[in-house]
Amino acid sequence: MDWTDIPLTECLRGDEAEMLQFALDRVRRQFAWKTGGLDAEQLRRQHPPSTMTLAGLIKHLAFVEDGFTALAADQPLGPPWDVRDWVGNDEWGWESAVTDDPQELYGLWYGSVERSRTAWATMSADGGLDVKVDDADPAWIKNRRRILIDLLEEYLKHTGHADVLREAVDGLSGNDPR
Q: What are the angstrom distances between the C-alpha of 52 and each of 38, 42, 60?
């Protein structure tokens, strides 16, 4: 698995949903490139004073993909996230990632991306981005558009983190693979 496994289709005249999906796929590819091909030690390496690791970023964004997509689809969160006590420890993903096998981490993230891409394609065909999502908390009422933008925002922020961490690991820099 590597960044080339994430499809990217040019989108010059798409509708809003297509343009947002294009932007999300592009930043997913950048994230995959920035975090890919590393061994366990490189993924687990911290760069003080931060405790953030590339392993933690991978697992966190796998959770974000699955969590935001489940929210948008009005579906329950699936494994491995559904068996966690998030109230007791919302840092579990970040902390547990440093003991995970690299191939399991990559598989978790690539699997979440594939599930998310499939679900968003279905949701786009089934009512589009204006469908309201009403969680149990009335203060947390959003539409799919907002959730998709929130997902893109998470990727933009954390791909920047990955950019800095990866350069510190082995000097890889730039916005896109050459």
A: 16, 12, 11
- Ranges in the chain, pLDDT < 70: 85-89, 127, 130-141
* Among the listed residues 140, 120, 19, 138, the one whose alpha carbon sits nearest the alpha carbon of residue 70: 120
The answer to pTM > 0.85 is yes
Quick: pLDDT tens for 19-45. 889 999 999 999 999 999 999 999 999
Task: Report the pLDDT value the prediction gives residue 130, as an integer from 0 to 100.
Answer: 67
Q: What is the pLDDT of residue 4?
A: 79
CA dist 70 → 15, 36, 166 (Å): 23, 26, 30
| Spatial CA neighbour of 66 closest among 112, 4, 7 | 112
Distance CA 29, CA 8 (A): 8
CA distance 55 to 116: 20
- The continuous run of DSSP H or E covering 78 comes out as none
| CA distance between the termini of the chain | 18
CB 26 within 8 A of CB 10: no
